[in-house]
Amino acid sequence: MADTLKVLGQVAPADTNNADLYTVPEDTQTTVSSLVACNLTGNTPNIRVAVRPLGATVANEHYLYYGKALAANDSVFLIIGITLQDGDIVTVRSSAADEIAFTLFGVETS
Predict the structure, then answer these.
(1) Running DSSP on this structure, what letter comes out for residue 41?
(2) What percentage of the chain has pLDDT greater than the value 90?
(3) What is the pLDDT of residues 37-54, one digit of tens each?
(4) SS3 of 65, please?
(5) Is 3-109 a CATH 2.60.120.260 domain?
(6) Closest listed residue to residue 50, CA positions, set 23, 10, 14
(7) Could you tell me the mean pLDDT of each successive run of 10 residues in the chain, 110 residues long?
(8) Strand 29-39 relative to strand 3-11, pairing
(9) If DSSP codes are grouped into helix, strand and coil, which group holds residue 73?
């Protein structure tokens, strides 16, 4: 098995719908070290972050953050340290379109 440290995903949602930030590839385990959410504007939107086991539909029990306010022109660094299996999906959302950039960092083991 080989470990690959990497940027797992980056997305800046253009709308207020859920956006898949990262899907664990087949036959891979992933350790997520951190998530960065960067507010690109002077507004104060809220963010949501969910982990969907095996690609399940987003439900209340999947949320790690829900309605977390992100100050104007600021970033939040969320140290997560979770493990995911193949097929799991990290989904993000912002309360405002084109205002937040999300980046996920971690290690893939395959």
Answers:
(1) S
(2) 96
(3) 999 999 999 999 999 999
(4) strand
(5) yes
(6) 23
(7) 95 96 97 97 96 96 96 94 96 96 97
(8) unpaired
(9) coil
